[in-house]
Design goal:
There is one protein chain. By secondary structure, this protein is an alpha/beta fold. It contains nine helices and eleven strands. An eleven-stranded mixed beta sheet has the order 8-7-6-9-10-5-4-1-2-3-11, with helices on both faces. The C terminus is likely disordered.
């Protein structure tokens, strides 16, 4: 399939999650028929061999490799022309728990959707065969569009989830009706966007904070954001047991980058 549209950008170093993110992005680019744009730090030749081993699994995938010094700056610049930016939850420069130093700046400032690859191995390799999107914010349409597109590309079902904290021992009728109406609207929008995607809906009677840390049966959790990351999205980046796709409501107005890192090589 000839490449089309904007590239899939990935930040990849020689760390475990850097290599996992590279493989995830390569598979996604191959499915989408897009160019894979790999951003990596200056590394010894032995680490270039790791890059080659991953990409040899996708022999027909067009690849451009760029070398930069600061991962966050490089990925933010690349996001201006990208369809998706992919990075691992931690890299070589990170020591300890939590997410790597580039994750929050990229997730907060990218001009396109951002996929942060982390979590349990089953989710990372797509063993659950399901995409989940959590709605209930002002950016539901963007989140639903990104989630539906990913589900269509992977040919898996999409689950639309609405987190609704229970008030009192039993939910009142009126809020339940409102929640069901919200889910029906979301399902109808998804049907218009991707008619072939099988969609299910679910009310989760917990807070969004509890929901994002408990979902353990999905390959990707999709969350919508505007400019700054909210508390729920930050929690998901630290505690979700699957990759997290951050669907941007719009490109951050404050983000401006002058130039991209120099291209090193390309292959097709």
């Amino acid at each position: 399939m000839p490449p089309r549209g904007a590239p899939i950008v990935v930040g990849a170093d020689s760390s475990y999650w850097g290599q996992i993110a590279l493989r995830w992005a390569a598979e996604h680019a191959w499915l989408a028929g897009a160019v894979l744009e790999v951003h990596r730090p200056p590394v010894p030749m032995t680490n270039d061999d790791r890059l080659g081993r991953v990409l040899r699994g996708f022999p027909m995938l067009p690849v451009a490799v760029r070398v930069g010094v600061d991962p966050a700056t490089d990925l933010l610049a690349a996001s201006l022309d990208a369809d998706l930016v992919v990075l691992g939850c931690r890299g070589n420069d990170h020591h300890g728990i939590g997410v790597g130093s580039a994750v929050t700046p990229v997730a907060s400032g990218a001009a396109c959707d951002v996929m942060v690859v982390g979590g349990r191995p089953a989710a990372v390799r797509g063993a659950h065969h399901q995409i989940s999107v959590l709605i209930g914010t002002d950016n539901d349409q963007r989140a639903l569009a990104s989630a539906a597109g990913l589900a269509a590309l992977r040919r898996v079902p999409l689950r639309i989830m609405l987190a609704a904290p229970m008030v009192g021992p039993h939910p009142l009728r009126a809020p339940v009706d409102d929640h069901l109406a919200t889910l029906r609207t979301a399902e109808a929008l998804t049907l218009r966007l991707e008619p072939a995607v099988h969609t299910t809906t679910e009310i989760v009677w917990t807070s969004p904070h509890e929901t994002v840390s408990k979902i353990d049966d999905t390959d990707v959790l999709v969350l919508g954001v505007h400019e700054r990351l909210d508390a729920v999205t930050r929690l998901a980046l630290h505690h979700a047991v699957c990759p997290v796709l951050i669907a941007r409501g719009n490109a951050p107005a404050h983000h401006r980058v002058d130039a991209k890192p120099k291209a090193e090589s390309s292959a097709s």
